[in-house]
Design a protein that fits this description.
The complex is a heterodimer of chains A (378) and B (289). Chain A starts with 6 loop residues before the first helix and ends in a 9-residue tail after the last strand. With 378 residues, chain A is an alpha+beta fold. A four-stranded antiparallel sheet of chain A has the order 4-5-6-7, with no helix packed on it. The longest helix of chain B is centred in the last third of the chain and has 25 residues. The chains are: A alpha+beta (378), B mainly alpha (289). Chains A and B meet through helix 1, helix 2, helix 3 and helix 4 of A and helix 4, helix 6, helix 8, helix 10 and helix 11 of B.
Chain lengths: 378, 289
């Protein structure tokens, strides 16, 4: 593109004129909103290629739209593109650290002595588990944990890459990333409790159990800030449940939880959404490959909105669908007041945050929610 | 059409404006005819499936001077339209004047107070009514802008140094006919979408972000497409020039951009598209000229 086009080409383009009449505002608006039939679109594109005035009109109309459009395509947040590699990298680092620390602990003089004593007595030591576990837990957590708070650079990166309607959600993401430290602390406490409450006789030693639990917690929480940074994903406590298993199972669980789990995949691959002129809801996870979603529903969709991993889609007869996992699973939401369900077609959906949003119907009704669609007010 | 009207009657909200199912069917038939007089039944079916029915009915009810319809229209679209006008004009006074003039036309009142067909008659439900209003605002602004630009005052002309246009030098080097022919042929063969992209980016100086927003794709996609179109065009023109008898070096030289100071380019002629006065209104009916 740096080369540009030859001057002869730019001159020829500039001198091209359309012999046809200009398309009507209805057609130009249809072009802007991408609601034209293929034939109409081809005609308008042909005209726009040679008509500077109409190009100016469509660009002005496009810029004047306050929201992108009812059927907005939310591009994948760029913050993710650069960070995709970070999730497995941090998890691997945490895993590697845990193995290293484990190795060091196993060959530490006091551990060797303890194992020797255990071997001789054939019993678990009577040392209180909790104190040792808590100590190891804290130590390991300090050693394993990547910075859970969003650094100023990360915050700036998130802010810089998200604009417009995504700004509010970006703030939420920054707040969520910052809040991950608290979640991580909770996770550590929970795992310390877990280790204290259920020492398994099959494990090598209670201290190792605690360390395993802490290591798992670290592996989980290593991913947690990034999970939280997009405002979704299981909490660190949920990941901590994985930590109940042994180190072996942890080794299996951590990579699969990070790279293979379907729900996680839905977090990392953000989809683009659109509504076709036939009223089909479609999703694309790669350039130019669109798949119809909710095809079984006899709904002509009119609006789709995406906030984080939450997707909302609405159509005729007040139909409203909600997905909390980027479109993997859907639930129908009934808009009703005083026992009267909404019958007007959903004209637009707007969510400022994951929980707060509004739905406007073509009959002029506006429904608002502040609890992620659990309840609606008309 | 009758079946469609009956099925979608409740959804259309036509009942609020005293339009029955038969009236809705008549309205839809008229709109479909207005859209494409020679449309095939399949096209009509496809058009109906994506029709903004409720907004179309509202627009038609407003045209029929239905008070309730105007009330809804004003509630929904008045502020949005002024907002759109401001976003287009970037100036409050201009935006207000722009929106007011459009309102008058929506009511069916001309600039001199004469009544004529409401502009809403031309809303055919392809996209949203709000989007249509934004497009009308943009179109009116472009009309006004071009009109104003053509009425540049003498002071402005003096200020711009264009009151005494320089005489074009007589020894204008003629453009090689082979370059012109090759360019014209390749441009004609170019896909309309690529031509649009090239024109928007290189001629109109639109940013990748603007183009991406309009086409609803990522900027990088636009960048790739532009790169591909420009590179392909260069290659094909070069090939044509060589086929027309130029050496590879001559072809490369012919395609190189020349220093603009060396070119006797009539900038006004090159950049200015001779748009006729209020040309947008030509297609909108004689009563709006």
């Amino acid at each position: 593109m740096n080369q540009g086009i030859p001057k002869s080409v730019s001159d020829a383009l500039a001198n091209e004129r359309s012999a046809e009449q200009h398309p009507s505002p209805d057609l130009l608006n249809g072009y802007v909103e991408q609601s034209l039939s293929a034939k109409e679109k081809a005609g308008v594109t042909q005209h726009l290629a040679v008509c500077e005035d109409c190009r100016e009109v469509v660009f002005l109309a496009s810029a004047a739209a306050s929201q992108p459009f009812d059927a907005a395509i939310i591009e994948p947040a760029r913050v993710w593109r650069g960070w995709k590699w970070l999730v497995p990298a941090v998890a691997m680092l945490a895993l590697g650290s845990s193995v290293l620390v484990e190795h060091r602990n196993l060959f530490a003089p006091h551990q060797i002595a303890m194992r020797a004593a255990n071997h001789q007595s054939g019993a678990l030591p009577s040392q209180p588990v909790g104190s040792q576990a808590a100590t190891d837990n804290q130590t390991n957590a300090l050693m394993f944990s990547p910075a859970p708070q969003a650094t100023p650079n990360q915050q700036e990166h998130i802010r810089a890459n998200l604009t417009g309607r995504n700004k509010r959600s970006a703030q939420d993401e920054v707040a969520a990333a910052a809040g991950a430290k608290q979640t991580q602390n909770e996770s550590r406490e929970a795992l310390a409790d877990l280790a204290e409450a259920a020492p398994s006789p099959t494990t090598p030693s209670p201290a190792v159990v605690a360390r395993n639990a802490a290591a798992t917690s670290s592996a989980a929480t290593a991913a947690a800030p990034l999970q939280a940074a997009v405002g979704q994903g299981p909490s660190a406590r949920a990941f901590g449940a994985v930590g109940q298993s042994s180190l072996q199972s942890m080794k299996k669980a951590a990579p699969s939880g990070i790279s293979g789990d379907a729900s996680y995949r839905s977090l990392t691959i953000r989809s683009q959404w659109r509504i076709t002129d036939q009223g089909h809801l479609e999703r694309s996870q790669a350039d130019d490959k669109w798949t119809q979603v909710l095809a079984a529903q006899p709904i002509r969709f009119r609006a789709v909105a995406v906030v984080g991993n939450d997707v909302w889609a609405g159509g005729n007869n007040g139909a409203l669908f909600h997905s909390v996992d980027g479109g993997e699973h859907w639930a129908q939401v009934v808009l009703s007041a005083d026992g009267h369900p909404e019958t007007g077609a959903v004209a637009s959906i707007h969510f400022d945050t994951v929980s707060q949003g509004s739905v406007r119907t073509e009959t002029g009704s506006t429904w608002t929610t502040s609890d992620r669609g659990q309840s609606w007010n008309k | 059409m009758q079946i469609y009207a009956c099925e979608h009657y409740a959804e259309s909200g036509a009942g609020r404006f005293g339009i029955d199912a038969a009236g809705l069917a008549t309205l839809l038939t008229e709109v479909m005819k207005q859209r494409e007089p020679s449309a095939q039944p399949a096209d009509v079916q496809s058009a109906l499936s994506s029709l903004r029915l409720e907004e179309l009915v509202l627009a038609r009810a407003c045209m029929a001077a239905h008070d309730a319809a105007w009330e809804i229209f004003l509630t929904r679209y008045r502020s949005a339209m002024y907002e759109a006008a401001y976003k287009v004009a970037h100036d409050e006074a201009t935006a207000r004047a722009l929106a007011d003039s459009i309102y008058a036309e929506l009511y069916g009142v001309g600039q001199r107070g004469e009544s004529h067909t409401s502009k809403l008659y031309y809303y055919l439900g392809r996209g949203s009514l709000a989007g249509w209003l934004r497009t009308v605002v943009a179109q009116e602004y472009v009309n006004q802008y071009r009109r104003t630009r053509r009425e540049t005052s003498l002071e402005k002309a003096i200020e711009d140094g264009t009151q005494f246009p320089a005489v074009e030098p007589a020894d204008t080097p003629p453009v090689d006919a082979r370059v012109t022919a090759a360019t014209a042929s390749e441009l004609a063969a170019l896909d309309a979408q690529d031509r649009f992209l090239l024109a928007a980016y290189y001629l109109d100086r639109r940013t990748l972000a603007e183009i991406a927003k309009l086409l609803r794709v990522h900027e990088s996609t636009i960048s790739r497409k532009l790169e591909r179109a420009a590179t392909g065009l260069r290659k094909r023109i070069r090939k044509r020039l060589i086929a027309a008898g130029m050496s590879a070096r001559q072809a490369d030289e012919a395609m190189q951009d020349v220093d603009v100071r060396d070119l006797p380019v009539n900038v006004r002629k090159t950049l200015g598209q001779a748009t006729q006065e209020a040309s947008f209104y030509k297609e909108m009916g004689a009563d709006q000229g």
